[in-house]
């Protein structure tokens, strides 16, 4: 199975540094993440106080506990140097999930 880390140069940490694709790939592989996407618009070159809303999909048979999800969220916050809200498909409302998925920006796909 091919792993793809999407172009992240336009996704900047709070200090203006591009998000490191290698760190994202390592994070996703370590946590058995199949897909990680931004589900909220990040303006190219934005250094603002924007929080990131991210959607995470896990590999087959992987279902982390709420404590593991919180730990992943904290790890992403440290990487991004900003608040990250990590959501799973189960946490999305059915009325808005198709709209969010259509606008999602893939960051990692395995």
Describe what you observe in this structure.
This protein has 110 residues and is of the alpha+beta class. 32% of the residues lie in helices and 23% in strands. It is built from 3 helices and 5 strands. The chain has helices at 21-30, 66-80, 94-103; strands at residues 4-5, 33-38, 52-58, 84-88, 105-109. The protein has a 5-stranded mixed sheet, with helices on one face. β3, α2 (66-80) and β4 (84-88) form a beta-alpha-beta unit. The relative contact order is 0.27. The mean pLDDT is 79.
Characterize this entry briefly.
The chain has 110 residues and is an alpha+beta fold. Helix content is 32%, strand content 23%.
How many individual helices?
Answer: 3
What's the assembly state of these chains? Answer: single chain
Give the N-to-C terminal Cα separation: 7 Å
Helix-strand topology string: EHEEHEHE
Structural class by SSE content: alpha+beta
Number of strands: 5
- Please describe the biggest sheet, giving its number of strands, its sense, and whether it closes into a barrel: 5 strands, mixed
Query: Residue-averaged pLDDT, rounded?
Result: 79
Instruction: Report Rg.
Output: 13 Å
Output the strand order for the largest sheet.
Answer: 1-5-2-3-4
